[in-house]
Amino acid sequence: MKPLLPNTYVINNKYLQSILSPSTDIIDYNFTPDQIHKLNLLQILRPDIYFNKKLSEEEFYDLSRNYYQKLINDQIIYKSDNDYYLYRIDSEDHSQTGLISLLNIQDYLNNNIKPHEKILVSKGKERAEQLSKVKFQLCPIYLFYDDQNIDLDLEIHHEKKPIIKFKSGKYVHSIYKTQSDFSSINFKELFVADGHHRIEGFAQLDVKKDTKFMAIIFPKSKCSNLAYNRSVKFPDNYAKDNFLNDLQKYFVIDELKYHENIDRFFVIYFQGKFLKIDLKKDYTSLGADCIDFGEFVLKEILQIFDETSDDRVEFVPPTLGTDYLINQVDTGITDLSTLMRPVSMDLVIDYSKNQKFMPPKATWFEPKPLDGLFFYNIID
Known about the structure:
Layout: E1 9-11, H1 16-19, H2 27-30, H3 33-36, H4 42-45, H5 47-50, H6 57-73, E2 77-79, E3 84-90, E4 95-104, H7 105-109, E5 113-114, H8 121-134, E6 136-137, E7 141-145, E8 164-168, E9 171-178, E10 190-194, H9 196-203, E11 212-219, E12 225-227, E13 229-232, H10 243-248, E14 251-256, E15 267-270, E16 273-279, H11 289-301, E17 313-316, H12 321-330, E18 336-339, H13 345-353, E19 363-365, E20 374-377
Parallel strand pairs: 5-10, 7-11
Antiparallel strand pairs: 1-2, 1-20, 3-4, 3-9, 4-11, 6-20, 7-10, 8-9, 12-19, 13-17, 13-18, 14-16, 15-16, 15-18
């Protein structure tokens, strides 16, 4: 796979603060209506949230298309030069640089670009429909390559002064033009970090075989993965009083206090208590807390067999914090929450290479590139 010139639109630097948007995974949780109306990208991604009203399918996509075209007409975004770009993310203790590129969806369909987790069925269809009807991509797919097997130091290629630089939270995001030609690089395999639903959306498009999509490719050694937790409502026919006994069939249980470094263990929060759980020796771990939870708690105990479509399972990103997980249970919205350890990068690669799939929302890569800096017109 050779990285292709991006051929994208780029955000005009002076409009930067009014155009960026956080992940739609968290927008429903953390933002007030006043804050939402300052995040203009939601007029493309989620106009129903932006305008705070139900929209017909036709209204939804008309608003998306019209606002996207307005960005072009008003020169809020402009056509990029025929150059490669590098995306750098810095914090006090971390730095990573990725290559912005176009890639061919056939490489995903042929498994040269390798996913590691299942997708939520409804969300995959939603992404495909959005891509098909609006014909744009503003959320790059975050890929990584195994830099033990390829000699590519992106840090030495970027120019001294970024064309875009800003701080978001604890991270500084910088975009650099580069005069380097990356077309001779051959990535034998790439791995999906963030964007499983988006890339599957491209795969579902009824378009010609050389359809391209926009990606940012980072080295594996610089990628950090956090735990993506769950908060679960018990099935109506399940007796909550039986849960601890059922849990003890598979796990050794110890109660922990909140201050006891709960992030070091596999923990369930249930009925106001933090329960450290360890799989009994009679059972074999599948390699990660999120996988074991799906197998032994959801399937065996609760008889919830499909996390990809069962709305009793809420996927909670780490950015919402432990207090959110606790509150879901304490207020009766759900019955239990998990506090899991992250999936190892080695396991991500093992699953990817062997075409195995973790549960949906198994990983949360942090930091990640933000949406709305680059826009790609889908050609069909």
